[in-house]
Predict the structure.
Amino acid sequence: MANILNKDAFFLPEGVIYLDGNSLGPLPRAVPARVQAMMTDEWGEMLIRGWNKANWMEQPSRVGNMVARIIGAPDGSVVMGDTLSIKVFQALSSGLKLREDRRVILSDTGNFPSDLYMAEGLVKLLEQGYELRTVAPEEVANSIDEDIAVVMLTEVDYRTGRMHDMKAMTELVHAKGAVMVWDLAHSAGALPVDMAGSNAEFAVGCTYKYLNGGPGAPGFIYVRPDLADSVEPALSGWLGHRQPFEFDLHYAPGNGIERMRVGTPPVIQLTALEVAMELWADVDMNELRAASIALQEQFIAEIERDVPALTLASPREASMRGSQVSWRFEHGYAAMQAVIDRGVIGDFRAPDIMRFGFTPLYIDSADVSAAVRIIADVMNNKLWDDDTYKVKSRVT
Ligand SMILES: *Cc1c(COP(=O)(O)O)cnc(C)c1O
């Protein structure tokens, strides 16, 4: 197996083992200087001329192509912008328009709440008898009937890492005449995705997790190329217009995926992301996956050997897991704070999940063993049982 470890490319603070790149990727070393240069040379010197001279206006599509390569999508099928929640709203509303005779959005109870909240909000806004139906993840396949307009699923469960089978599920959804929306928040940069091969109509995702674009990095949306010129965008902002600088009084959707743009792109943040995406140019996603599984298997084996108090919450079968391993523990919040205090950063997800992400670009086998030693110390010596670890912060 080729070594895909590229630790030197990241800024990783001394004394920290970072197992939370599934939530916020670390800073690629090349980013600060390039963002600084963009600010002084482009924003500073060019001022408004930067939109043309520095090609800021093309950036959402240019970076979209970089993301497309990571998710097995063709050039011109992905565009960047806004947040993932907004992209979920766009995909859902365009999806519903493709099946106007149906009224149900189907999702699962393992989905990230924001995806469900956006669906609830859309249903309320439409006021046409639409409904969001959620079932247990294992029940989705049996719950797709001819009432379902859109099935919206996150491929990798944010809490447990359990995966849906994208290709098989999409086939099932299409067999019932429904539209498929995939959320790739915990897939893009974590494992191989075959967007084109799945034949799904829409996919969305974010770039501050495994893609290391930084806090607030924009989301992305994929539209299957045969639909891109006909889907109806719900958020009809001027930069999704066919000719924004004609300043027409009426909206006309732009060409292809460009119609999924809304307003002015976040150029500084996109520049950070564009630099971060350069790290992926030579990464073979199958090799990344193999390395991720090796780290996860090592972590599970060592924790189960050394830390009896933790119960595996993730699927035991590696092929059923994304790139994270989660454990259940009643006092998981306090335990995670105690672990973080000793330099191993993971996170906590209510009600009792301790979550650790595995990112083979900057985590190796020695990191896993060192992390396990610290977790074992905290758990076996009950170091978490301290009032300072029990006060919940705003972000967990
Ligand atoms: C991280 C995540 C989000 C977050 O959405 P934002 O709008 O970027 O805050 C939404 N959905 C899923 C499935 C996620 O994992």
